[in-house]
RING-type E3 ubiquitin transferase
Amino acid sequence: MSGNEFSIFQKNNLDNSCKSTDNTGDSNSKMSIIKNGIDETFNELVENVFHFTMIPILDKEYNSPVIYLPELLEILKSNVNTGTELEILEQGIFERTLLADPEIYLLKTKHNVSMSSNTTEKECIVYLFQCFIELTLAKQENRYPTIKEDIYSKIFGFLCTNVSTALKQPDLYSPQNINDQVLKIFETNMASFEDYVKFFTSVNKQIILDEDDGESQIKSIYQPILKKVKEKILKSTIIFLPHCEIALLQVFSAESFLANMLIDDCYVPDTSPGFHYTNTVLGAIFAISGLPQTPGGRFEYFLKPMEELSGPLESNIWSGLEILHVQLHKIFLYLLKAGPEVKHKTLSWLGSCLEKNMGRCKLWNIEMSMLGFISDGFALNLSAVLLKLCQPFISNTDNPKLLKIDPTYCAAKVHNNEESRKLGVHLLKLNENTMLLPTDVEGSREDDNFSDNRPVAKGQFNFITECFYMTQKSLEIGFAQVQEKMTNINQELARMQQTFVDAQQSGSATSEVMKLINDRMEGEMTKFNYLCQCFLTGVSPSKSKCVAGSTNIKCTNLVGTIFTKI
């Protein structure tokens, strides 16, 4: 208690004031004072939810593990005539979060009572979150019928106020690390997704109410947490996925205030190269694949393809990538549903990422020039997620939603963010791509005064159109490039194998030469095996159907456009 500003209250205060109910005279008088105004049902709720008692009795054996608060006893003694249960509880919750070692205040329990970890929990955010979940269950199950709705609302308010205080003033709870605790509540997976969202929504509303500039306060609170999350994600692998960090991002993307803050935190300046998208928290997740982050980088797996059994490893990689794609799809689905502003920013992020990395498709690109772009793993994962977003309307050619795909999207031009928002065009510079058939525009591009007369639909393009064309572009910079690399590596392996066989048959090659050829073959096989696993996961039965459906829909769309023009 040395670090607690309330350490002047010692256990002997309670010893002198809390007596057995069997005593008579003055001790009974003191017990009546302590119990005065405290409803038994209300105290039972406090004991089961917050794990401290508002009626402490030292020689009583409690039905559940609880602690006493010396400061709470003093409040009861001095404010018995004017204090209410809720006011005492509000103060008690705050005092409980400040306890350095709650275990020393444990009261007796019956022999068959198991200890709850939250009773002696030292970390305030973890403690308050568990209390929030227990209070939610108590309300849903109507465990205390005499406790009314307004009482529950006020108690929830006390919880949110204390969480808000801890997030805004972490020094008050030193030496606790509040940022680590926010991530820690996802490690135990102690609540449903809806409960996590409800918790952060309630806390953020409290922050907004408490502060004049609540949104700025939210950014200052959560940005350090996102930085820590990104650092952990960058250290993870496809075998050991960052499940807690991904769960946190899913909750953040589903909560309106945090979704806006999250996508703002991922902003990449227009002048930055495409590779910089990997340095954002969302980009860091896309980059998880096992493929090297940079050209010429080290592969993590299949290092000895001629010696190792690859079956179990392949299964783990497939499983990891499949889980990653599902979780990423959820994050972006939540972001797209988080409101018009967040949807616009999310589509802008996706469109800019694709536009900045179109250089991956250039014929003049050799491996080392790819340093400025996202990795193959990033591109494949991005394609997989966009395919999942397209799945509802590309499953078959009879889907009426296909009629909403506007082919004039490819000719639309925007010059700034406001035009992008107004027209619903977030995949920039698509109009500059080479057309299948030459246009009058392409013949006059050298003229500064030329006008683009290609038809463009009036009004705003819909999400289906944008998602469809973003998916096509992602397949171009992702699947197509990896397939080409696999073809080249396969051809190189065939040449090496022939060289190896020729050297063996000639008998003139030294052991060093044979080892050199063998090492080169192993290196190329490592590349091929891992590219193959990532590629095949991207075109697994579920996704291959999406790829085929996307191609089919594109052909249908092109034919429909031609006949419409005729």
User: Anything to note?
Assistant: The chain has two domains: 11-212, 233-399+463-483+544-560. The radius of gyration is 31 Å. Residues 11-212 form one domain. The first helix runs from residue 11 to 17.
